[in-house]
Design a protein that fits this description.
With 314 residues, this protein is of the alpha+beta class. 47% of the residues lie in helices and 18% in strands. The protein has a five-stranded mixed sheet. The longest helix is centred in the middle third of the chain and has 19 residues, at 180-198.
Length: 314
């Protein structure tokens, strides 16, 4: 996701269709019910799928739900706490919670923006999502609470256009029309399908140590490697690789490549730097290697990618 997306949907979330939430009344009994969640949303009580969004300007107490919830972070960082466990979620991250899940949210960034896709139990178990719910996939197993798991965490993925799909879901929910519930259901189902196909998930999430490692990669992505990070954090390469995979669902080498490709894409979109210079800027000494990785990542060459954004340059 990019800042333009955040700015545009900040207004939609805050002004167009997201209610002003009475936190104290909402969590008075430590359980969010559909009725309480829908309180104040005009004509929403008949909706099988509804969206709730807000800034993380105050903490939420420990609570459970009587609906299935998909937490999406549009901007900033939050701490999601499950009893004795907690993990950090940042821009683009997604977390699925089932009926057995209970959690609280702590403020890390008061300007962080989240929105929740809420699916009523009957709709999940017997309606549009019933085949997913009954499936032997890792999401189906989780939704049925078969493994006593608290949550499914999906880190931001820059290769797949999940941000675009979330944008479509938000836009659909904001519109009025007889087709809106059906479009919304199909788009949310597509989101689940994308997450299944992506197959990068964790039952643990990003703790303090992983956050420190990811911050190091963010600051040093041009030059760091698995070997470099293992020395920096005093772990063996095999242990560090397993640890990051366990907590993020991704290999550390992919995280580094992802960061290089994300920044290469931004430079192609927003500057007129020659592609050779961009390759060097994001940490590739060989232009041919950069070209191959970029084409594999974006399914098009850097020049083709840039062409789509040429009209945005001054």
């Amino acid at each position: 996701m990019n800042q333009v997306f955040f700015q545009h949907y900040d207004k939609i979330l805050m002004d167009d269709f997201i209610p002003s939430i009475d936190f104290e009344g909402l969590w008075a009994d430590s359980r969010i019910t559909t009725d309480n969640q829908l309180k104040g949303i005009e004509a929403a009580e008949q909706q099988d799928i509804f969206l709730i969004g807000h800034r993380m300007s105050q903490e939420t107490p420990h609570h459970s739900h009587n609906f299935y919830e998909v937490i999406c972070i549009l901007n900033g960082v939050i701490e999601n706490c499950m009893g004795s466990k907690s993990f950090y979620m940042s821009s683009g991250d997604i977390c699925i919670m089932n009926l057995a899940s209970a959690h609280s949210l702590k403020v890390v960034d008061p300007d962080a923006i989240i929105f929740n896709i809420c699916i009523k139990a009957d709709e999940m178990q017997h309606g549009t999502f019933r085949n997913l719910f009954r499936s032997d996939t890792f999401i189906g197993t989780f939704l049925r609470e078969n493994d006593n798991l608290d949550y499914l965490y999906f880190p931001n993925n820059h290769k797949r256009n999940l941000a675009g799909l979330l944008q479509i879901i938000l836009t659909t929910y904001a519109r009025e029309g007889a087709a809106t519930p059906f479009l919304l259901a199909s788009e949310v189902l597509q989101l689940f399908a994308e997450l299944l196909e992506l197959n990068e998930y964790s039952y643990y999430g990003i703790d303090e140590k992983v956050l420190e490692i990811l911050s190091y990669i963010e600051a040093n992505y041009q030059t760091t490697s698995l070997a470099d990070a293992s020395v920096r954090f005093n772990y063996s390469e095999s242990y560090l690789s397993r640890y990051i995979k366990k907590h993020t669902g991704k290999q550390i080498t992919k995280i580094i490549t992802e960061k290089k490709m994300e920044n290469a894409g931004l430079l192609l979109q927003n500057t007129d730097l020659p592609v050779h210079n961009i390759a060097t800027e994001v940490g590739y000494q060989s232009y041919s290697h950069f070209h191959k990785i970029f084409k594999d990542w974006y399914s098009e060459t850097p020049q083709m990618y840039r062409t789509k954004f040429d009209n945005r340059l001054p």
